[in-house]
Amino acid sequence: xxxxxxxxxxxxxxxxxxxxxxxxxxxxxxxxxxxxxxxxxxxxxxxxxxxxxxxxxxxxxxxxxxxxxxxxxxxxxxxxxxxxxxxxxxxxxxxxxxxxxxxxxxxxxxxxxxxxxxxxxxxxxxxxxxxxxxxxxxxxxxxxxxxxxxxxxxxxxxxxxxxxxxxxxxxxxxxxxxxxxxxxxxxxxxxxxxxxxxxxxxxxxxxxxxxxxxxxxxxxxxxxxxxxxxxxxxxxxxxxxxxxxxxxxxxxxxxxxxxxxxxxxxxxxxxxxxxxxxxxxxxxxxxxxxxxxxxxxxxxxxxxxxxxxxxxxxxxxxxxxxxxxxxxxxxxxxxxxxxxxxxxxxxxxxxxxxxxxxxxxxxxxxxxxxxxxxxxxxxxxxxxxxxxxxxxxxxxxxxxxxxxxxxxxxxxxxxxxxxxxxxxxxxxxxxxxxxxxxxxxxxxxxxxxxx
Length: 451
Description:
Low-confidence stretches: none
Distance between the termini: 28 Å
Largest sheet: 9 strands, antiparallel
Number of helices: 11
Radius of gyration: 23 Å
């Protein structure tokens, strides 16, 4: 069973895998730089001295490793993908909370509500502070459907945010509200437990399915909800922070530039949220996430990879595992297949995968003797098992993802697959060190006291 809230995870779950940072760090550039530069196996970070924001803390790098993500979801790491895929169609309905820690402090008056929060400015040329890991929630007044998703928001004033609704269900529910000429009440939850955050990003549920029910299934317990203070919605009672407001009908403002997961800056014209209240816990913890960081890679894997793996396994025999290449904004994927997978079957697999996910631009298919999470292993497979003329599949005239800077102005692009499988003759079998000798050699480089 997963943790009840973020504090429980930080206090009890990450013992030995959490670094508390007492040195002052500023929300403008400094915290984001630390999160972006954290090494692959770095611990989770809790900044406890936020310049200009006494009493606030910022947590980041929380799910940057599979080990911590599995811990946060309460499952063994080797069962992570299967757990997410199996729970995708399940639901544990949310319940009314007995206590509401997120409303220990209520802020409603004044023009500077958002200035109280240590919202991060991430990159040198960003247009301003951005909320990068806020879970936006609404409810359709006609159908009763609850919308929930992670969407970036730029601070445009003390009570004003722009929000980029790039994906459903929020994009669809916002469009429906605008068609009725109505503002859309929303709440933005910050500092959720990781399982509820994962529920907000996982794909694959039926249209209209309640993502809070999915979050409950992932947690193994229901999400506690309480009435919001100023809008007719419910809020996650154990979040760290909740922003309440309304998306104005028919209003757009320029936002950006913002350094996106693609590694380049992106600007747009986006809907506007007018903030009516902010509530939070005492000694609140603001969640920090820097685009392109390891946390983002794990969220993208959950959003796209786990569901795609389940679909591919259901349609193609011999699919073992997949990985979204780190730092590629989920544009590139590596798939591991069984030794007996033919090149023709691999081509079919590649075409299917590229068609299933519009974000994907390249896919590399390797055998199961390659560690798909080791870039050096994958590079070796391409160098020794892939022939460009024989083993490349190109799909032209495909839809490009919105943040791909290489796409045409019309949003068109192309996709490619690289088939890097072993030869049927077996002449390309990998050389190996003797297992016992390797274990003895590795002990030479093990830190003292490390078992």
